Structures are given as C-alpha cells and as structure tokens.
Amino acid sequence: MSDIIQLLPDAIANQIAAGEVVQRPASVVKELLENSIDAGSSKIKLVVKDAGKQLIQVIDDGIGMSETDARMCFERHATSKIRKSDDLFALKTMGFRGEAMASIAAVAQVELKTKTPEAELGVLLQVEASEIRNQSHTAHTGGTTISIKNLFYNVPARRNFLKSNAVEMRHIIDEFHRVALANPRVAFSLHQNDMDVYQLNAGKLSQRIVGLFGKNYQEQLVSCEETTDQLKIYGYIGKPEFAKKTRGEQFFFVNNRYIKSGYLHHAVVNGFEGLLAKEAHPFYVLCLEIDPKRIDVNVHPTKTEIKFDDERMVYGILAAAIRQALGAHNVAPALDFDSDVNFSFNAPRRNRIDEFSTKAANYQKFKQPKDNDGEWDKILSNFQELSDKISKEDQQDVKDDRQESMTFGSSINEERETKTPKSEWGEAKSSIFQIHQKYIATQVKSGLMLVDQQAAHERILFEKFNRHLQHSDGSSQQFLFPEQVQLSTPDYTLVMDMEEELKALGFVISSFGKDTVVINGAPTELTDTSVKSVFEGLIDQFKHNKNVLSISKNENIARSLAKRSAIRGGHKLNAEEMNALIDKLFACQNPNYAPSGNSTFIIFDLDKIASFFN
Known about the structure:
There is one protein chain. By secondary structure, the protein is an alpha+beta fold. The chain has 21 helices and 22 strands. An eight-stranded mixed beta sheet has the order 5-4-3-6-2-1-7-8. A five-stranded mixed beta sheet has the order 9-10-13-11-12, sandwiched between helices. The protein is elongated and about 95 Å long. The protein starts with 9 loop residues before the first helix and ends with a helix.
C-alpha cells in the first residue's frame, strides 16, 4: 500500500488558516489596525471601499519594516512579538501568533509599502494568493501603507457568504471603535468610499468616546476608577436612565486588548443593581490593567477571549468599582435606614402605602352615606389583583404556547382560527369604561371582557404596518418643520439599509451630512406622538429584536414600529376611542395576541364571576 498522507502546500495551508483568522473584511481591519498600534504609530488612517470587498487600506507613521522583515511578515508563524514560550505570559502587544498577514495574503491581492527611519528608500511588495509577484524599492515617507484588494477573489464561495455592504460596514465600524477606544492617545481617521466618516484627534478617553458616539454622550458619562494591588480599573459608565434595550455599546479592555466576557458584564450589571430597567444594558468603556502573567490570551485566534487566574477577584473588584462610581456621582438612590438594605429597591413602597392610607382616610371624611361611588372605587381597586389571579388559573396553556412563539419568531402572528367575542361585542358598546387608564372593561353577552389597550393597539398597528410593507402603500403626513435626528455611525448605516422599507411605511427621510437624517414626513399613524423619539425607538427595538428573535427583516420593522408607537398605559381614552380600538382589534386576522405573544384581552364568564361570591 502506497503512502497517502502528504504535507499540504503552503498556499492551501494558508487558505485553511485564513478561515479562522479572516472571516470577513472586518477581520482584516482588526488585524491591520492592531499591527499599526504595535508599530508605535501616532496617526492611523483607514480607507475602505465597497465595505472592504474592493479595498482596505491602512496608512500609519510607525517604525516601518526593513526589506527582510517586509518579506518575512507574509510567512506563517513569523512574528516579532515573541521569542520563547514564556513570552506568551508577558504579552504587551496586540498580535503575537504570526498568522494574520499570511492568512490575508492567501485570500487577497496585497500591496505593502514600508520604510524605516534610517533607510533612504522604502520597500514595495505585491503578493497574490501567497505568491510574491513583485519586490522592489520605492519612495515612501515612512511608516507602513498596506492595501488589501479584492478580498476572497480566489475563494468565490467565501465571497458569496459575505453580507450586504451595510452589514459588512457595520462590522468594520465596530472593529474601528474597539481599536480607537483602546488607544485614545493615537489619532485615527476612517474614510468610506472617499467620504470622511471619522476624524479623531489624539486626546483623553472621554474625548474619544464623544468623538465616536456623539456629543449627547457627554451628559451620561460617569467616571469609574479603582486601584488595588492586583488590578487597576478605569474608564466610564453610562447613567442608568440612558441604558438601552440592545447590547453593542459595552466595551472591556484588558491591557488595551478588547475582550468579550459575559461574566464581567454580569459584574457590571450587578453593580447597577436596582437602578436598571428590565432587560436594559448600560453603556460602559472599562479598561483593566493586570499583570500579563495572571491572564492567558492564547485562547482563540481572534484573541477576544482571555482567561484570568482568579476571575472571582476581578468580578468582585469590578462590581464594587461600579457601585462606588454611581454613589460618588449621586446616581444611586439614598439609603433608607428603616428598610432592609438587601431589598432597597422596595423601599419607596411603604411611603406609597402610607400616602394611600392618608388619602383613603381623608376620603372617608367627605364620603356621603348614600353615595355608591365608594363601592365602585373598592371594586376597581381590587380588579387588577382579580384579573391576575384568573389569568394565571385559566391561561397557563396559552402562556406556554406564547413563550415558544416569542422565542422562535413569528408563528404567533400567523393567521389561525380563533374564537373571539366579536359577535357579542356589538351588543354592548354603551357599557364601557377604562381601568387605571390601562385596561378597557366592557360587557359582552357571556360576561365581562378586559382589554389591554397597549397590547391591542400593538396588534392593530403591526398588521397595518405589515400590509404597508407588502404593498408599499403607507400614507405619509408631511412636516412643515422637518425633524433632524443625529445617529451613531452604526445606526446611520442601519437606517440607510432600511431606507426602502421605511419609505414603504410612510417615512420620508433623507441624508443630511455625517450621521444625520432629516425626517420630512412620517406615517399618518404617528401624528399624535413624537416622531423623533419613535424613530430612535424603532432603531433600538429593531436591534433588540434582531438579537433575540429569528424573524424576517420586514416583520422585525413592523413589530418594532408597532411596539414603539402604540399607546401606553396611563393614556386616557374616551368612550368613542375605546369603542374604535376594540372594533379595529376584532377586525385583525389574529386579535387574540399582540405581536410579542401577550394576550390582548381576557373574558370572565358569568359562572366564573359567580364563583367569586360563593
């Protein structure tokens, strides 16, 4: 039997390695920017064309490379960062594997120009698919300029898996943000298709945050700093009221290296305990400095995961630093020493009960013996508790189905056969009233119906927006004074990617300079709300849904807009508005559930009501 195991050619081995290191254009951007940082650059320029598919160019003023080093950098496992195994536990550079340049050169056309300060001429190298096509001397000002052209040109299957330009550009901007935040003392610029996206001067971390995310971040930044013998923490966190439903503006840096860590994120959230809304994620940029011997960064090719020798110690110090920062800036609520500090978020409850008791006592003084209003107040005050009890008893099966639908997307919004009191509803429109400006109560033939006005309105708007997206027939209300909305660069890219769908809904938007859109018109359904806040909420909700649900783009937009533009609890409705809301609800294809899966109404039949009095 002949031998069948053979050593792979370098070109094929490099392409295999590229599958781990170079996943998309953003991966190339990350590796090149980190190399420029390691070269001691003070100014770095990133140029991108066609979302990196056509060109990625990085220009720096670092130390440059000699002719031999320039050629060696394209060899596998060739690096200037480490010499022996012990160096892996004393890393102070971003790169160290010696795989990035070889992997990039295996799947792209690369042109490298570099010059050291003492050399008279620079070096020009042109590499295609791991083969050096040209090596010569050239005039160069200093530092290194590297151009990556036609990424994946020789691996068409990989190129076909790339997303749209808007999606790939968002990933590039994310990587740019991470490197720029980790190195505020370095000037950065980003140019996309000959347009300036960022011009960041060297400065402090706070200035870099404002430069990247906008001036509105100035008011929410809270400085955070803690120094111990084992760990130093510094950076900024956002105030709780500015927390968003979507993740993406949370940054950890360990020894200037960006990392992802759900464990440390939990420590930050724990530090905010009692101050964040449900499912809200605070903004933070936190830098950790620790002895390199106490961490292991050689875990994953992308180097975004590291291991600590004592994670619990890091967790405790980080959570304490967050609490101290919030307390020092008077963000945390004052302590109530009459209450259990372990349940401080319930402290105001006693005051509300005392206030209610005082009001009730005062009310009794003016109550007339023959007036029945007091009895109605007593009934309505206990109605919410009664509703919750019945809902838990009678709708457990519905709850299980609802949770499954929320997890897996849009099955809850498919048309199904449902039994609704639509036929009974028309007989009792005069008997209708609002409970706590949140629920609508009305008499039906079989008993009493309670409608959640927000959930019902979400269902109505969702189906209407869905039809507009399918037929592109959304009506628009033009503004006399257009609204300007300034967005972060990733959000601006997202809006441009959704432009056609937004027009189908009735939005009339146009680009206005850098990261700003002008809303000249909005769907007629939004005339009674703040269009700017709804538009910003739409983007936030869209990103949240994208992270937790597997649904189509159109359904995500319809659900997001319905969620953010529906009437809220506390909105007072007159009898005509309540009747119209229920009429529109029962005209829907699936009136029983909101798009999220929550029930829109429940019915207490007469037998159930009678059982409460037996």
